[in-house]
Amino acid sequence: MITYDFHPEARHDLDEIWDFIAGHNLDAAERVIGDILTALDALVTFPQQGHKRPDLTSRPLLFTIVRDYLIAYAPDEKPLWVVAVMHGRRNPRVMAALLRGRE
User: Fold this and answer.
1) DSSP letters for 44-62
2) Which sign does the torsion angle of CA 63, 14, 98, 89 carry?
3) Could you read off the pLDDT of 25-71 as tens digits, one per residue?
4) How is the chain split among helix, strand and coil, in percent rounded to 5?
5) Top-tier CATH class for 4-100
6) DSSP helix/strand/coil, 13
7) What residue ranges do the domains of the chain occupy?
8) Is residue 2 pLDDT above 90, yes or no?
């Protein structure tokens, strides 16, 4: 019963995360992606649990952190719309530009 979907680039984000981590440790890559998907399952049930990031976007997106990754999503969309999955240590200007490109 998956009730979330990904912006096409957000799917690419997950692939890049998996590829990068799997290059070092395949099991760790599986765990990280699994944790992200588990968090998305929880967001479907309680989509308002995230927080706003006005420093990144004025859009009605919420954010949640899973391990080192920041997930940007549209809580009012049905299915829940995942806009981006970004490393949380990226430069905020880069993150804001990435989000602008995914409107």
Assistant:
1) HHSGGGSB--TTT-SSS-E
2) positive
3) 999 999 999 999 999 999 999 999 999 999 999 999 999 999 999 99
4) 45, 20, 30
5) alpha beta
6) helix
7) 4-100
8) no
